[in-house]
């Protein structure tokens, strides 16, 4: 696959390029947004990996320009700004996915594979030609059950022919597809690689799959028979070791450049200590340390990345206090010490998952995050009476370790940590990214309406003002936990786009919903009667029958008015929205889907039904 990487940090760019090249992808690099725009205009790519912060043209603007030109290639956004606002801006601009720096290279590769699978014209994960097996997920090829070892270009040639069985490729077309714009070889190179590929296949006893069409080029032969193919053999996976070695080599190559970025920060710190820090130097230092946050973490220096984030926060425009100057000095010195330590290869992060499949008889778990441990212990003494088990964390770092070790069902989170450079809102923002988010209640002595707004925007489930009786705190926690005890709901989702159905499945399944996915609206009534869903999600525009048609059919039934119906549509004009609600819809969400919004709307509709059913039981 041909991938355009737009990244101005050479170290991170080489790290990504080497990993993708190891997966047999052709990667071209642009170091600023304008260069990326020009390459995307001139060359067809299968995927664009795009940094958010770029010189000349930022990633959001570039993404918007491409989508405005009807550019349908998948776009993966890289950003060191880990907050929901920037993620929503990126997705609204047209990005298909995003990865937050510092990233784990294995996670990045997995997301890239997922995007390429969605956009691929191939219908099966494993491509077959006679006894030849090609597995795009693992980049492995076998013949009659035996592994076939190919170079990157040989693999790319074979994959291109297998994916385009009816097409004739001229030599120049093969050059365009498989060789970099910056290093175009001669047409003799194409012939040499095809000859080598044929030779390796012949040694394995395979029939030559490539046919030469005189005067035109090459194409895939039609196999004479579809023989049964043995399963792909299990080959020891050395990918992790290869990537780790590549990361270490790249770090040694770019280490000095990152140290030079730290020197800029040190110059700003010296100027600050001398009382002559200019705004230009402050901004330059802040930009350099912002780059370090994503870069160092991606190379495996997690502690250094966290220190860089603290430095960035302290370099915000402000009147610097003596204590802040001292803290900056300490952090910069520790940052340099971190980089002198041996490189530890980044491991694949395991995102905490809620206990959806755990024993329902286990008590819900509460994590109290508060540096006032005496108060936290008082609250903990009240929780057993409510059937809640409790763990205490006296700092944000201790809370993160506890969540990674054993994710709780709910968190009571203090917002103020005087000894830390960050506050509880930073952790609250992280919690919203988990699938599904871990509910949290803010717990603070600060009387600030602005904080209440921030907590609400970040998905907080409550805001408790200190001082408050421990029993009242636990009662509020129990109230938030209550909805989680309801039986998992069944959702019927009707959309003619299989890719969107896959997306919705990945978004909703972690919440424990039972999902029924339907891409053929003509079978709607049969599936509806058989599945008896608790909620119906309908696409607006579909062939044969629109979502409005299906909604009206449901509402015409005697009990059809009780089934909550949520619409999905890319149209947001007033006339369309009015038409949707006139047909009997209960709610509406726009495409592209914003995950927190969709989850909130689904849960609101289900909760409304639960309240109505409880009311009926009470009256009856």
Percent strand: 15-25%
What integer value in Å does the Rg equal?
Answer: 28 Å
The computed structural class is alpha/beta
Low-confidence stretches: 224-239, 345-359
Describe the structure.
With 620 residues, the protein is α/β, with parallel strands linked by helices. It has 22 helices and 21 strands. Helix 1 runs antiparallel to helix 9, helix 6 (152-163) crosses helix 8 (187-203) and helix 11 (302-314) packs antiparallel against helix 12. The termini are far apart.
Key features of this structure:
five-stranded parallel sheet, 22 helices, 15% strand, alpha/beta, single chain, 620 residues
Concise structural overview:
By secondary structure, this protein is of the alpha/beta class.
Topology (SSEs and partners):
Layout: E1 2-6, H1 10-22, E2 26-30, H2 33-42, E3 47-51, H3 59-68, E4 75-79, H4 84-92, E5 97-100, H5 105-119, E6 127-129, E7 132-135, E8 140-143, E9 146-148, H6 152-163, H7 171-178, H8 187-203, E10 210-213, E11 217-220, H9 239-273, H10 279-299, H11 302-314, H12 322-339, E12 365-369, H13 373-382, E13 389-393, H14 396-405, E14 410-414, H15 424-431, E15 440-444, H16 449-457, E16 462-465, H17 470-481, E17 490-494, H18 498-508, E18 514-518, H19 524-531, E19 535-539, H20 547-555, E20 565-569, H21 574-582, E21 587-590, H22 595-619
Parallel strand pairs: 1-2, 1-3, 3-4, 4-5, 12-13, 12-14, 14-15, 15-16, 17-18, 17-19, 19-20, 20-21
Antiparallel strand pairs: 6-7, 7-8, 8-9, 10-11
């Amino acid at each position: 696959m041909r991938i355009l990487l737009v990244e101005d940090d050479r170290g991170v760019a080489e790290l990504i390029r080497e990993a993708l090249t190891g997966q047999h992808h052709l990667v071209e690099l642009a170091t600023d947004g304008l260069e990326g725009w020009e390459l995307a205009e001139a060359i067809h790519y299968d995927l664009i990996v795009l940094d958010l912060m770029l010189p000349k043209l930022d990633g959001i603007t570039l993404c918007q320009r491409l989508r405005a030109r009807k550019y349908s290639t998948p776009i993966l956004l890289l950003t060191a700004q880990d907050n929901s606002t920037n993620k929503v801006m990126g997705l609204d601009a047209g990005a298909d996915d995003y990865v937050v720096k510092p990233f784990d290279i294995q996670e990045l590769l997995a997301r890239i594979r997922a995007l390429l699978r969605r956009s691929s014209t191939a219908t099966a994960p494993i491509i077959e030609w006679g006894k030849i097996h090609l597995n795009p997920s693992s980049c492995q090829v076998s013949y009659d059950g035996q592994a076939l070892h190919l170079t990157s270009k040989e693999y790319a040639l074979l994959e291109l022919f297998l994916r385009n069985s009816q097409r004739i490729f001229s030599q120049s077309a093969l050059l365009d597809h498989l060789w970099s714009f910056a290093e175009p070889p001669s047409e003799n190179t194409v012939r040499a690689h095809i000859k080598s590929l044929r030779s390796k296949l012949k040694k394995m006893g395979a029939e030559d799959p490539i046919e030469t069409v005189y005067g035109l080029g090459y194409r895939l032969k039609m196999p004479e028979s579809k023989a049964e193919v043995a399963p792909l053999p299990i080959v020891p996976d050395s990918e992790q070791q290869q990537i780790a070695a590549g990361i270490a080599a790249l770090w040694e190559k770019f280490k000095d450049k990152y140290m030079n970025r730290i020197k800029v920060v040190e110059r700003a710190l010296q100027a600050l200590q001398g009382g002559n820090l200019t705004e230009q130097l402050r901004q330059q230092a802040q930009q350099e340390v912002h780059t370090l946050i994503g870069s160092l973490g991606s190379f495996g220096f997690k502690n250094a990345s966290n220190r860089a984030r603290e430095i960035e926060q302290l370099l915000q425009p402000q009147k610097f206090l003596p204590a802040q100057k001292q803290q900056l000095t300490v952090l910069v010195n520790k940052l340099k010490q971190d980089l002198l330590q041996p490189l530890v290869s980044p491991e694949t992060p395991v995102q905490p998952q809620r206990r959806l499949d755990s024993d329902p008889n286990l008590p819900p778990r509460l994590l109290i995050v508060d540096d006032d441990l005496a108060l936290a212990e008082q609250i903990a003494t009240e929780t057993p009476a409510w059937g809640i088990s409790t763990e205490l964390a006296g700092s944000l770092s201790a809370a993160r370790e506890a969540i990674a070790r054993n994710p709780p069902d709910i968190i009571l989170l203090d917002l103020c940590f005087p000894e830390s450079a960050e506050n509880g809102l930073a952790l609250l923002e992280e919690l919203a990214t988990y699938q599904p988010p871990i509910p949290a209640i803010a717990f603070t002595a600060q009387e600030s309406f602005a904080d209440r707004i921030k907590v609400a925007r970040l998905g907080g489930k409550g805001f408790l003002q200190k001082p408050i009786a421990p029993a009242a705190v636990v009662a509020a926690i129990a109230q938030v936990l209550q909805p989680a005890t309801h039986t998992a709901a069944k959702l019927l989702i009707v959309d003619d786009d299989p890719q969107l159905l896959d997306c919705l499945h990945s978004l909703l399944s972690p919440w424990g919903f039972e999902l029924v996915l339907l891409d053929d609206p003509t079978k709607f009534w049969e599936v509806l009667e058989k599945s008896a869903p608790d909620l119906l999600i309908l696409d607006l525009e579909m062939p044969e029958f629109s979502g409005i048609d299906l909604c009206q059919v449901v509402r015409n039934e005697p009990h059809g008015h009780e089934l909550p119906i949520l619409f999905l549509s890319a149209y947001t004009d007033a006339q369309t929205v009015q038409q949707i609600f006139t047909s009997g819809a209960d709610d509406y969400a726009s495409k592209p889907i914003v995950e927190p919004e969709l989850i909130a709307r689904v849960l609101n509709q289900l909760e409304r039904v639960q309240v109505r059913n409880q009311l009926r039981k009470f009256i009856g």
